Amino acid sequence: STMDLQVEKGIAVDEYLQTVLPDVYAAGDITLARGYLSGIQEQKAIWINAVRQGRTAGYNMAGETVRYEGLQTMNSIRLFGLNIATAGITAATDGMYEEVLVDDGKQNYLKYVFSNNNALMGVSAIGDIRVVGLLKHKIGTKFCQGFLGNAPKIY
Fold first, then answer.
1. What is the pLDDT of residue 3?
2. Cα–Cα distance measured from residue 87 to residue 111, given in angstroms and rounded to the nearest whole number
3. Cα–Cα dist 70/109, whole Å
4. Is 36 in contact with 48 (CB distance < 8 Å)?
5. In the prediction, which pLDDT does 71 show?
6. What is the DSSP letter of 132?
7. Which long-range contacts (C-beta less than 8 Å, at least 24 apart) are formed by 133-138?
8. CA distances from 32 to 8, 22, 68, 69, 93 (A)
């Protein structure tokens, strides 16, 4: 029955976007899905997550078995004439560290968040934000130490 469907801050789904009800799937802003980095069920009302969830739920409803890769976090905004973008984790917590690059002459700021084993966990940019788009697919990937010293200048 529909009484079995638990809704708190959203509708909980499994890795295939199926609810606790057989043959009932959910996608988009209403879902509580597994976060790509956190591994916990959370809600991220971002367009790209809704698109990916809709596609995954559609495949599963059509009889394919497709696992949802997990919620991604990426946002951008233009504020006071500055472009700002983030992807992944924006502030280091336990087991992480931050590296910051600033180019005052061009008003560019880059912040990388790495795990202690050098996996990229997030990137934030102000000014030229292209690096966020370039590196969003590398979140969770381990980089060699000294990566920033050899990072290509994008701005």
1. 55
2. 11
3. 28
4. no
5. 84
6. H
7. 133/85, 135/87, 136/72, 136/74, 136/87, 136/88
8. 9, 17, 12, 14, 23
Q: Which residue has the tokens 């959370």?
A: 42
Q: Tell me how far apart the alpha carbons of residues 123 and 133 are, in angstroms, rounded to a whole number.
A: 10
Beta partners for residue 75, in sequence order: 86
The share of the chain scoring above pLDDT 70, in percent, equals 89
Q: What is the pLDDT of residues 11-57, one digit of tens each?
A: 999 999 999 998 999 999 999 998 877 778 888 888 888 999 999 99
The span from the CA of 140 to the CA of 138, in Å, is: 6
Cβ atoms of 34 and 68 within 8 Å: the answer is yes
> The tokens of 30 are what?
């209403």
Q: Which of 102, 99, 100 is nearest to 115 (CA)?
A: 99
The terminus-to-terminus CA distance of the chain in angstroms comes to 57
Does residue 54 contact residue 26 with C-beta atoms inside 8 Å?
A: no
Q: Is the dihedral of CA 85, 69, 19, 33 positive or negative?
A: negative
C-alpha 114/C-alpha 103 separation (Å) is 21
